[in-house]
Amino acid sequence: MILLASIIFSLVFHRICACRCGLKSRFEAFCGATWVAQATIIEKNEDRGANRIKYRAMIGKIYKGGKRADGEPMPIESSRTPGDCGVVDLEVGKTYLLAGDGANIIKMCPQLAFSQSTRPLEWKNAPKWLFWTLSKASILC
């Protein structure tokens, strides 16, 4: 009985403390981000002591906030836990459309998601119209 109560409490507590992004359009997410870029993950390291994931990414096309040369590696950090809105499931070798803040930190919420998921969009799954839209979007913010 105590075990069942503990399990129920854990599930309810996790649900209450989970990351919530609210309803934002892709345009609001784009305008709210400091930077938006095409990035290929080349390295992923978990820093358990600091509860962080440290990625290194090769930056391709920069759509917003570009002070870095295309093709230059960039360190990116995120929380290690989804409950803190951390982006934990980027895979080495895959290319994503990422949005972040000025400190090169990414979270689930400002990502330009194309479904109910808030995980970053994998580049190969991006709709064709997106490329043109992104190149014009910073003018509208």
From TrEMBL:
Give residue ranges for domain NTR: 17-141
Keyword Zinc attributed: yes
Keyword Secreted part of the UniProt annotation: yes
Which compartments does it reside in?
Secreted
Which top-level group of life is the source organism from? Eukaryota
Q: Name one GO cellular component term.
A: extracellular region
Q: Which InterPro entries match?
A: Netrin_domain (IPR001134), TIMP (IPR001820), TIMP-like_OB-fold (IPR008993)
Q: Principal place where this protein is found?
A: secreted
Please give the positions of the paired cysteines in each disulfide bond. Answer: 19-85, 21-109
Residues at which Zn(2+) binds:
19
- Look up the signal peptide feature and give its range: 1-18
Tell me which UniProt keywords the record has, alphabetically. Disulfide bond, Metal-binding, Secreted, Signal, Zinc
Name of the protein this chain belongs to = NTR domain-containing protein
Species name? Gnathostoma spinigerum
| Organism taxonomic ancestry | Eukaryota, Metazoa, Ecdysozoa, Nematoda, Chromadorea
